Amino acid sequence: MPPRAGCSRAMHVLTLLAAVSGAAFAQPGAASQPDATAPAATTAPDKQAGQSQGQQEPGGRAVHSDSSYVIGADDLLAINVWKEQEISRTVPVRSDGKISLPLVGELTAGGQTPLQLEQEIAKRLQSYISEPEVTVIVQDSKSRKINILGMVVRPGSYLLTGSTTVLDAIAMAGGFKDFAKQKSIYVLRQGDNGAEQRLPFNYKDVIKGKNTDQNIHLLPRDTVVVP
After folding, report:
1. Least confident of 22-31, 39-48, 78-87, 116-125
2. Nearest CA to 167 among 117, 85, 226?
3. DSSP classification of residue 94
4. Distance between CA atoms of residues 210 and 205, nearest Å
5. Nearest Cα to 199, choosing from 207, 210, 211?
6. Which residues make Cβ contacts (< 8 Å) with residue 204, sequence separation at least 6?
7. What pLDDT does 190 receive?
8. Distances, alpha carbon 166 to alpha carbons 161, 184, 186, in Å
9. Gap between the Cα atoms of 104 and 127, Å rounded
10. pLDDT for 29-59, tens place per residue?
């Protein structure tokens, strides 16, 4: 009997040691579980912060409603260089298509899109500023205007948007006044060689479906004359 009691006590001690050891090994495993999920908890805010910064990029492209817009003479450009107020300013495009900026000097803006001009200015500023961030906004697109003169209700200059035809222009100007010579309307257009073209438009014929090719799409700086 004594040997059996001793054996029983030894087995009991071994069982207790095994239980304690199992608990000790189980705790590190349980503690490591939050560590495995920790990156997921920290990654989401960082990603959100990155998205937020992306939406607040200087010169967000959304400000340019038409990325294909081509800058022309007389346009008014708001040029902003981030954190460089001495360089940022609003400048008109001269008749030769050029503008001037501090540090940048003189450069051609006419014929470029706002995005292309941003890149050109940033490139020139790299000698003076580390990673310059430039925004170009067309504040007044004077180069995209047409004139409507003569016997219309509201003669004047109008912004050319989309595919504006002669009929569209007459409607924009409020229609004809009394005694307007609707058969003798014409469009004055500056040719590539500098010569002025006179393009006829017979309103009476066009609305009847005749000579509809006279209802041309207007170009910037065209002038519609209603005698």
Report:
1. 39-48
2. 226
3. P
4. 5
5. 211
6. 182, 183
7. 87
8. 13, 13, 9
9. 10
10. 444 444 444 444 333 333 333 333 333 333 3
Higher pLDDT: 46 or 18? It is: 18
Return the HEC string of 166-187. Answer: HHHHHHHCCCECCCCCCCCEEE
The domain at 61-140 falls in which architecture?
2-Layer Sandwich (3.30)
Radius of gyration of the chain (CA): 37
Comparing C-alpha atoms, which of 110, 138, 107 is closest to residue 124?
A: 107
Spans of all domains in the chain: 1-56, 61-140, 144-226
Contact yes or no for 149/223 (Cβ under 8 A): yes
Q: Which two tokens stand for residue 86?
A: 């001495």
Structure tokens at 13: 């001690």
Q: Determine whether domain 144-226 maps to CATH 3.40.640.10.
A: no
